[in-house]
Write a structure and sequence with these properties.
Helix content: 25-40%
Distance between the termini: 23 Å
Oligomer: single chain
């Protein structure tokens, strides 16, 4: 089974008017040309319904939009999903082994194939999968293989930044297994999960068969390409073979109705283009999506087809998504940026859209922040000063020029891909309410994430007594903060590495510690997913080489006893 990519180009000849221009002479040419120009203007004034339109693929777009294709090709969106190839695979398939709780995965080559083989604790072969697709190219790369007619995401991934293999249990907020280990815990079906947001024109193609449901999955193009944001392009390509139409668009202010430009949409419709994937959603009936694909096309009102998930959204009568949000309702997991945007005063009272700050063309691939959104080297400030005159000393004190707007108003309180990310809910940190009442459980504002010693050492209480998301974002904060004692920060991070029951939190603490002791860390052998005895020995060896202030073991033990061990289901 192979995912189908639709890239056929419609065969349409030149328009009769254009042929007449080519054959005519003198006044006849002028008359016919003027007539053709009138037809073009009428065509440009005619709105189109792009639903059901054919896709053509980014290689066709490149013929006329070389510069845009080149800038998009540098983005991580382009490489979100790729067919397996020498260029696509970044993991070390060189016989490398990954041991996890008695299991051993071996990543190797078999001719042109990239193969993942897993053996149990007795060395007996369990699975052998040939990689068909890759997912991701920035932080971690995941691998997809075909099993029994469906595609599945395999349980191992390559950590790109660290240059080593990891088990997927170290990427999600799930604790260590209490007994044994299910090596396949995070194996997920690609056909009706990953396919929706990581490709163009996704259609799971669920069908009823004599032996039960089956998938005939198709995508217009692997990865997030041109038509994911600009809509299906068959008519656009066909109509713009007419040079008069192209010149009319180039020289005039007309909008081409056969294609969507998110920058020309109003703020809501523009954000909907991004929100389709950057905002987990729910629909009243998912069956049409599974059988025919997502009906949304750029320019649509996203609410026509689905609604965003919220803290109080119910499924089968239960509010099962509450743990994905802070008590205030602010999202605390990635893929909910759209919800944060909807909650922002700059959205509700202004014209803030995703494209105010982000763009796929010309921006730095690490975050896709537009040059116009950068002011004096600070990311985001360029977008803020368009509406806000700037910080006043009464409100911002000594922070006037030391931090960016987003550092205070979009703090890093979101977990995703083993890292802490910025909230997309623009908010007021309310510093006057922070000192003196800093709860262990609750959304940390920007003040607390820097001043970790406020509120009866809130940072320590949250790091060891908070729930998994709190511990993850606070561990990252202990690595960033310049307002805490260096040796104290290192001691806290070493303890989190040794004792936190969640491998993802341990990895964040480890990365935060390495950032504090080495600007260009060479990743040591510490294994965040390893067994407790081995892990503590590794932490002890690192502690012996690192100047630090040990934590109060009794206090940490008491905090740990009250910490929540809830597994946060991210929506994988």
């Amino acid at each position: 089974m192979e995912p189908t990519q639709t890239t056929d180009l419609p065969s349409t000849g030149l328009s009769p008017a254009l042929v007449a221009i080519a054959l005519g002479a003198g006044g006849v040419t002028i008359a016919v040309g003027w007539h053709a120009h009138g037809e073009v203007r009428a065509d440009l004034a005619t709105e189109r319904d792009l639903h059901g339109e054919d896709f053509v693929g980014s290689s066709v777009c490149r013929r006329c939009h070389e510069d845009h294709h080149e800038s998009w090709a540098r983005t991580h969106h382009r490489r979100m999903t790729q067919a397996v190839s020498e260029e696509a695979v970044v993991g070390a398939f060189d016989g490398s082994e990954l041991e996890y709780r008695g299991w051993t995965a071996t990543m190797a080559r078999d001719g042109d194939d990239f193969v993942v083989s897993v053996a149990d604790a007795n060395g007996s072969p369990v699975t052998r999968d040939r990689v068909a697709m890759t997912i991701g190219s920035r932080r971690i790369q995941q691998y997809v293989a075909e099993r029994d007619g469906v595609f599945v995401r395999l349980p191992v991934a390559w950590h790109i930044e660290e240059g080593r293999w990891m088990h997927m249990n170290g990427a999600f907020l799930t604790p260590d297994p209490t007994e044994g280990a299910d090596f396949e815990r995070h194996v997920t079906r690609w056909n009706d999960n990953c396919v929706f947001c990581h490709n163009v024109g996704p259609n799971p193609g669920l069908r009823d068969g004599p032996d039960g449901p089956r998938f005939e999955t198709e995508v217009a193009e692997l990865g997030i390409a041109c038509e994911a944001c600009h809509g299906p392009g068959a008519e656009h390509v066909s109509n713009n073979r007419n040079p008069i139409r192209r010149y009319a668009l180039h020289l005039g202010d007309d909008r081409d109705p056969t294609v969507v430009n998110p920058d020309r949409l109003d703020a809501n419709r523009s954000a909907d283009v991004c929100g389709r994937c950057h905002g987990q959603r729910k629909t009243a009936d998912v069956r049409p999506f599974l059988r025919r694909g997502d009906p949304f096309v750029p320019g649509d009102d996203l609410a026509r087809f689905s609604e965003p998930l919220w803290r109080d959204t119910e499924l089968n009568g239960e509010a099962i998504f509450a743990a994905r949000f802070w008590p205030s309702g602010t999202p605390r997991l990635t893929a909910y940026e759209y919800q944060g945007w909807l909650q922002s005063p700059c959205t509700q009272e202004g014209e803030l859209s995703c494209t105010t700050c982000h763009g796929m063309h010309g921006a730095d691939p690490e975050g896709q922040v537009r040059e116009s959104a950068i002011h004096e080297g600070r990311l985001g400030d360029g977008a803020c000063i368009d509406c806000h005159e700037g910080p006043g000393t009464d409100d911002h004190g000594a922070h006037d020029f030391a931090v960016a707007c987003v550092d205070c108003h979009m703090p890093r309180v979101v977990y995703g891909v083993v890292a802490a990310h910025r909230s997309h809910r623009v908010s007021e940190p309310a510093v006057r309410d922070t000192q003196g009442r800093a709860p262990v459980h609750g959304e940390p504002n920007a003040c607390l994430l820097c001043h970790l010693d406020w509120g009866e050492d809130w940072g320590e209480r949250a790091l060891f007594g908070g729930d998994p998301v709190e511990r993850a974002v606070v561990a990252a904060a202990w690595g960033r903060s310049s307002a805490v004692d260096e040796a104290t920060a290192r001691g806290h991070l070493l303890e989190a590495m040794a004792s936190d029951p969640y491998p993802a939190v341990r990895r964040i603490a480890f990365r935060a510690l390495r950032a504090r002791i080495d600007d260009a860390p060479a990743w040591i052998t510490f294994d965040p997913t390893g067994g407790e005895r081995e892990r503590r020995a590794q932490v002890a060896a690192l502690a012996a080489e690192t100047e630090h202030v040990p934590v109060d073991a009794e206090r940490v033990g008491a905090l740990r006893a009250n910490a929540e061990t809830l597994a946060i289901e991210i929506g994988e």
